[in-house]
Design a protein that fits this description.
The protein contains 4 helices and no strands. The chain is mainly alpha-helical.
Length: about 110
């Protein structure tokens, strides 16, 4: 007997089940996706490590754009999170891109 299985969930229950979208979660989500495309962690859907530097660069550039567009509107914690994320991702991107290009420099 599935008691209650015929009941449809109320909208308030559905809303409560959804993760809260706030600035921290959004920046962390973009950073997490960038790390996946940098090959730093496996894709949670496929559990495979994939590298797509073009997509990683797009996500890093998106974070930079967000920083430019939100200048003066972020609190200290938000600003530190955004700046720290951009710094770490750009640093890793350069390291990985240099390894990918190999020793065939000028």
């Amino acid at each position: 007997g599935g008691a209650g299985s015929a009941q449809e969930p109320k909208p308030s229950e559905e809303e409560a089940a959804q993760p809260q979208l706030d600035f921290f979660n959004y920046v962390a989500s973009l950073g997490f996706q960038a790390m996946i495309f940098l090959g730093e962690m496996p894709n949670p859907v496929t559990d495979q490590t994939e590298k797509n530097l073009k997509q990683a660069k797009f996500l890093i550039d998106t974070l930079v754009l967000i920083r430019e567009k939100t200048t003066g509107n972020l609190n200290k914690e938000e600003s530190e999170l955004l700046n720290g994320s951009i710094y770490e991702l750009q640093k890793r991107f350069v390291e990985i891109a240099q390894k990918a290009s190999g020793p065939n420099g000028p």
